[in-house]
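Sanity check

After download, print the first record. It should look like this:
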Amino acid sequence: MTYEDLKQRQSWTLEQKIDHAVIVVSSFMEKVQGKVFVSYSGGKDSLCTMDIIRRFIDRDIPAVFCNTGNEYPEVVKFVRQTDNVTIIRPEIHIRQIIEKYGFPLISKEQSQYIRQAKHTHSEKLRNIRLFGSINGIGKIAERWKFLIDAPFDVSEQCCNFLKKKPFKKFSKETGLYPVIGTMAGESRLRFQKWLKYGCNSFETKMIASYPLSIWTDDDVWAYIRKFKLPYSPIYDMGIKRTGCVVCGFGCHIKGDRRFYFLKECKPKIYEYFMQLKNNGISYREALQYCGIDFPDKIFIR
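Expected structure tokens:
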């Protein structure tokens, strides 16, 4: 697989992509003897994934939602209205994760690199994070290197504890394997994973199917309109991506308004998360330190 392969497949018609997704899941189910569940977030991508499976393959395939305690209320309510959904929960609260590991800022990849550079005892790993490996990858972006010496930590560990571990535990206890509605074009990490393993992954630590790998956001909305699927009203309130309310991955990108929306529409939730602390530093202070635009930012001349 190459980048050109992805672009070519992304240009397929919606009908071609639906057929492809059905083939991907059917092939996966054959390999795992039908023992699958849909990893359901209540968002548009997993909604689309679940509908494809239940509409074209097996209407009784179960879905699993992890209520992290960090979801938009509209999403949780929508999930509870969906048939055949099991709700699981993490064993640790977001407050405890931030206190121990740090804030989810910049990107999952960069926050991991910064955390490792700051805390590793391996000089080799630290050098890779500072200067890159032989082929130049694995390096902290120059603009974020100052966070290594920040008075607080940044970390990608919230995703691990709030979502990955609960789903892994569910999979182990039930013997079911996840079908996940992520797309290769969403991030460099997901693109690299698709390049290496394709849409069905049997060679990684987590065996899983990713039938929407070659889809785009426009495809998902086209599918929702085509089949007139009800979706969470949070999208009609101006939110483009659901998921953890407190997540700061991508909030540095120009034009991102997630915290403005949160303060205006969910002021109590906003205030709660802004006062969460790591090493005595609040989330509000960490955002200010990173130069991120948010409602309470103090402009210093």
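If your output differs, re-run the checksum step. Summary of this record's structure: The chain has 13 helices and ten strands.
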